[in-house]
Amino acid sequence: MGAVTITSGVTTEPLLELDRLSVRFALGGGRGEVRAVSDASLRLRPGRVLALVGESGCGKSVLASALLGLLPGNARVRGAARLADGTELLAAPERVLSRRVRGRLLGLVPQSASTHLTPVRTARAQLAEVLRALRPDSGPDAADALAEEVGLRPADLDRYPHELSGGMAQRVAVALALAGDPPVVLADEPTTGLDRPLVHRTLDLLAAATDEQRAVLLITHDLAAARRVATDVAVMYASRIVESGPAEEVFADPWHPYTAGLLGALPGGGFRPIPGHPPVLTELDRLEEEWGCAFCHRCPDVPGFAPCTGNPELLDLGDRSVAAHPPC
Ligand SMILES: Nc1ncnc2c1ncn2[C@@H]1O[C@H](COP(=O)(O)OP(=O)(O)OP(=O)(O)O)[C@@H](O)[C@H]1O
Ligand code: NI
Q1: Residues with Cβ within 6 A of ligand 1?
Q2: What are phi and psi of 48, to 5 degrees?
Q3: Which of 6, 97, 100, 249 has a 20 to 30 A CA-CA distance from 272?
Q4: Residue with the nearest Cα to atom 30 of ligand 1?
Q5: Residues 124-152: pLDDT tens digits?
Q6: Residue 123: half-sphere exposure toward Cβ, Cα within 13 Å
Q7: ipTM of this model?
Q8: For 37-82, what is each residue's pLDDT tens digit?
Q9: What DSSP character marks residue 276?
């Protein structure tokens, strides 16, 4: 896979590159394996917000946990995930992940800011502690500067988590994720439980955090959220990325029937949810072997239960890629 792309004369190395990342969980007791992530390949370039979207349970969070080295013991991981400095995340020992990667090279914006923060200490105390650990040479004004960067007043930092509104807590969480100045920010459902205006402000904040040195991987099942800020999108279905490309192009002209189905379920798309449910992940190997792809039984383009001759492998077609899915 070519790691360097020339875009209008500017060379942009990916800050994060996934090459056929796969994760399986052994269930034990003869109950088989959960195939949670299958051959996921992605490139995250500086200045970009890449949204990884897909229904609940399709493997988005497992992919994030694999990058952070936070998978449970029954997980088996394959493939590669490289950072720009050459760190191979999947092979790195916990010592390297905890000392050099988490917070410094990979910042994490958690799903729920309020449960992420320690209730008995002020936001300032928590931010100062993280700054001391990640940026020991930072001056006394660093916390205030970070607060300002995420749209908080310095005085807000002197509150305890229960004194912060949901939006303020989420801003503190973003500030904590940015404290180590990481080139890659991973945000897993960062807007869960927030109302729409707050969803928008949090997303805009993440988009604003991207620059020539930084990119965001935004994990969400909220397609409207992805649409608002993503420059690139990867659509995941039943453990596989089935389509990816520049967000504007994918949203305007989806190639995979699953992407089209997700868009059709949005208010602007007519509120038509995709019928049926994703397959059980322990059945994926058998399904793909028998049917070609795992979306057939929900696919509007495949009449009845005729197996489709789709190839679940992602085909690279220039800027965009799609899992071939004839006759769609
Ligand atoms: N330790 C584990 N053992 C077995 N299966 C697991 C384990 N952890 C996760 N899974 C399964 O992996 C699949 C993918 O889960 P994941 O949390 O990545 O979904 P998701 O796309 O993030 O969904 P959501 O939008 O709900 O967060 C699920 O079917 C889940 O049950
Ligand atoms: Ni199909």
Answers
A1: 25, 34, 36, 54, 56-62, 72, 74, 189, 221, 281
A2: -105, 150
A3: 249
A4: 57
A5: 999 999 999 999 999 889 999 999 999 99
A6: 31
A7: 0.97
A8: 999 999 999 999 999 999 999 999 999 999 999 999 999 999 999 9
A9: S
